[in-house]
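dumping the sequnces here before i forget
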Amino acid sequence: MTEVLATVIFIAALFFCLGSGVWVGASLLACAIIGMELFTSRPVGASMAVTIWGAQSSWTLTALPMFIWMGEILFRTKLSEVLFKGLTPWMSRLPGGLLHVNVAGSAIFAAISGSSAATVATVGKMAIPELRAREYPEKMIVGTLAGAGTLGLLIPPSISLIIYGVTVNESIAKLFIAGILPGMALALMFMTYVAVWGIMKGGAIAKEQSYSWRDRIVALMDLLPVLALIIAVISSIYSGIATATEAAVLGVLGSLALSWWQDSLNWKTFEQSVFGAVRTSAMIAFILAGSTFLSLAMGFTGIPRGLAELIGGLNLTPLMLIAMLTVFYIVLGCFLDGISSIVLTMAVIEPMVRAAGFDMIWFGIYLMIVVEMAQITPPIGFNLFVLQGMTGHDMGFISRASIPMFIIMCLAIIGLVMFPQIATFLPSNT
Amino acid sequence: MGLWATVDAGLNRLYRICGIIAAFLLVTLTVLVFLSILTRMIGTYIGGLTEFAGYTMAACSFFAMSYTFRSGGHIRVQLLVSHLTGKARRINDLWCTGIFALIVTYLAYYLCELAYESWEFGEISEGGDAIALWIPQLPTAIGSAVFAISAVHTFIETLVRPATLDEIDKGAAMGSEG
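..and the predicted 3d for all of it:
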């Protein structure tokens, strides 16, 4: 009975701290301290210091600030302009027209940046005014951008995949490789939707001017440095030449070179990129410090084991379990941002998922899609916040515009469950 | 009020300096990892480079904590409390900053104790670097101590001036200097 009471106090404290607005990292630490005091006789403070020091100084985690910095550098280049102008001649004649630039631009930027908010911001900066000038429906502009921005987490490099990998002790390189095909598949699904919409609208949308092959080749030349950077980073991981961290450093140097080549590298942008990266890294590091200690405390409470046994006893089919988890993460996403949802739940969910026989690499890819679905549903979603700031529409409009994308992502999850090879094929063949 | 303003400005400068140190450490981290790639390419091996990269990252993260906190970079769930006004808002502000100050001070105390005990018992790293562990743990301890100072500073400021937490959320608590 005391065991049950202690568990209730522990869980209640967690929800109370988070809900009352205590900073996420501190909430997690506070609950971990309570949990340790209730369930073990170990010295709490000393365990905390050793656990946090070990996690915060680990080599694997060093990929995180590097990839964040890379994104911060590229965000301050002329990339949004280059992407739009480079892709336009290739996309203009497709049904659905330049809306495809939103998707393709996001997919490309996602391959050099690990954050979906940065992806939305960079692609949208140029695409929103250009598409508006060409009188595309506002709902489609906003919806496709919100949806395609989610590719940022799926297509490597991905900040959230690094955090997932560090949390469950899986190879970040493998996770990155696993994200390639599902990311491309999801991008194709978004583009199919745009094309079907374009065909159904028929003549109702403005005809785009057509471009000659000469224009297209010139446009491609502009995109070439970016594509080269993507290929260099991904192939260095894929071929096993570089670890994720080393690939990240190559990425940082490559983006500095790109920025210099575009004349956007000066002391001010460099300084801003470093401070931006330091702030984001510290924000994540604080949450991770809390979650690593909470995982330790969670282990002593017996909650993860109990939940794994409970779920195991229900004899759910994998599809039912995934459906349950999907609903759970989307509800959780109403209160927490993506990174906090991942680190907070993995301590409890990991044993359950392993016991149910899921491949942890596959599960990571699945998790990216659901967490991203939560990011385009109200009331909390970074993509929504970014788009709100950029377009001036309210949350309601943006989330309604994103509904088709949300449904496509649901389909993507069903596809991922039915054909797990989409995620597991590449990493098992390297 | 004059003394408080001086202390406030001085502390804000301290957080900014810590942020600058963190920025240097991030660049250092990049150089360290780049060195490890270079040395491997030319076939030599410098022991402990990966450990040093990890230490540098830990120091970078903790030096950046106070700066990030005061400039509104750390996140919290505002969904449920954003509609509070008047007295309820005030009590919630004090609860958030108060418990935060308590927890961060607790964290800093034990991170400092960790470094102190590594020094007292002469603990050596188990990695390829084999250096005394207190050396890399010291910057982390200092960074966390400044983080604790910023947390307590913010709590006291909230007691004195109700608008404090709002300014932190908006990233305006660092003042306009530099």
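Residues 72 and 169 of chain B are 5 Å apart (CA to CA).
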